[in-house]
Amino acid sequence: MPDTIAAGILAYNEAQSAGDRAICDLLAAEINRQLPGAENKIWHAHPVWFLEGNPIVGYSKQKAGIRLMFWSGAGFEETALNIAGEKFKDASVFYNSVDEIDRQALHRWLEKSVRIQWDYKNLVKRKGKLERLK
Question: How many domains does the chain have?
Answer without folding.
Answer: 1
